[in-house]
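Weekend entry, working from home. Most of the wet-lab plans are on hold until the incubator is repaired, so I used the time to fold the two sequences that have been sitting in the queue since the last round of cloning. Logging both here for the record. First:
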Amino acid sequence: MTTLKPLLARNRSWALQKCQHDPDYFEKWVDGQRPHSLWIGCSDSRVPAEVLTGSQPGELFVHRNIANMLDPADDNVMSVLQYALHYLEVERVVLCGHYGCGGVQAALSLPTLPLAQESSALARRIGQLRHTLHHEIAQIADDCCVAASPGASASTGAERSRRMLDALVEANVRAQFARLLESEPVQTVLASGRPLSLHGCVYDLASGHLTTLVEHLSPQEHAP
């Protein structure tokens, strides 16, 4: 696909279908947005936030990057977080990773990759992720040594590798969630008493299901 024509054609078809179902569909979004949630997710093309949550335009304020990272030194993600919390006043922040994440896999395998010899933005990003997960990666290396046996089948090894990568994906969600919770924009809102809930989730490509791994609920949500 080297031309934009197929995407433009699909855009026109989509817009026509929306207008046929609801003539005022697009007019609803012209005057502004009031999203209820900020979504911080991975850039992976298989994990589109609006699609997998069944959301309409105006519901989600979305930021996506490789491996759903929240780096306090990254003005991109931090400006999105600040804008969503202080100007849009979203009620919920969802930080979502996914099984089979290429960024997490690259962090695990970085020493053996040509990327490790680069000084590119991608290399720095993956290196930072590997540093964040270094304890978990060391544990995986130890587990691999213990689990390895001469008689193990290829399928057994592949399944073990998949489980270990899944565990690392979940560890990354928890690590990035901790940074989210500790961030200045979030702490400011929590200190103000304004309702805000935070959710760390993982998406399963095989089932299409979201699962909550960790969350911080506002006092209002804890109330009976």
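Second, folded right after the first finished:
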Amino acid sequence: MHFNVPFLELPFFANLLILLVLARFFGEIMERFKQPALIGEIIAGVILGPTILNFIHRTEELKVISELGVFLLIILAGLEINFEGIVKSLKGRNIVISLSAFFIPFFSGVFLGKFFELDIMATIFVGLCIAITALPVSIRILMDFGKLNSTLGQKIISVAIFDDILALSILGIILDLKDEELSFINIGKTVFFTLLKLTFFVLLIIAFYKLIERFSRKENFIEDKLNKILNFLKGKESLFAIFFVFVLIFATITESIGLHFIIGAFFASMLISKELVGEKHLNTIHNTTNGMAMGFLAPIFFAGIGLEFQFSSIHNYPLLILIIVVSFASKIIGGYFGSRIARQDKKTALAIGIGLNARGIMELVIANIAFKAGIISLEIFSMLVIMGVFTTICTPFLLKRAFLLVEK
């Protein structure tokens, strides 16, 4: 559908105003229907963009704001995780569920891409977007059902944590491969050096975590030092500024060694815990980040996804249908299969598979990075947007029924 309304060159802030108001309006409608706001925000972009009204295009200024949105969304995702959560995801049988729930969808996506003769980079990215679980979306769905702290809810979250970290690690390798001539030797070299960089960075994070752990043994040591610094500084938002500088240092380190900045931002924000800075400071950091991200920058990012989306660019409808079907089915199968190996009963295994199916935030961030890097075409990007929205809409509906089944 396209009404052929000519593109209007409105001033930047007029574009921003229209985009934000419509994004928040549709986001609010979606939330009233117990759906994530990001779906409404994408719809706002689709309506205003080339697909329907052709009223606003994604200008360079909007892209910069979107980039900041990505940065804050990744920080928020990291704040939802702590190192105990990662250790939990690697303990015992959880690792079996995590690996199965990631690699079965990943290789299903890769096989699908190869079947439709996509190039190797696009094929890997399709696999990655199908394999990922949007941790913030999963947390929100489980919170809405009052199941976040249940045994089943915690199992879903610990698996999603591992899958997100694995996806970001593979993302680093793929982005390094982009500029290489794709021969087995070059691929091998790139994978080796990227893994070396990732290993260096992960060891740096672990060393920093151990240092934090050591100081945390002295009761409130870091929190007390932080309070002294905040009392010395006069600015009201000094805490958020210190936190932001901390995250930017790690984002800069990853960028300087050739990895994407979101990897550094994600791991750095993951280090911030109530044991480190105290519950009051953690809540302040979370609330400030959440307000900036979800109130302003994230709606612009997701509306920007809608502006880029063009249904008219999709010509391969069998591929679109199969991306949706394979993404949904393979994640359920991966979660179910891994859970059964880990000796979960059939009902619990099914609930875990369904609970891991929300894509949303992380999948759209990765699809957007791939599209901007020229790795995937507008057609594949648009298909991945549809897949992300579809799986995010269906997951709460199916998960609610799965929980009822488990409780019988």
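Plan for Monday: verify the second prediction. The domain at 12-407 is CATH 1.20.1530.20 (Na+/H+ antiporter like fold).
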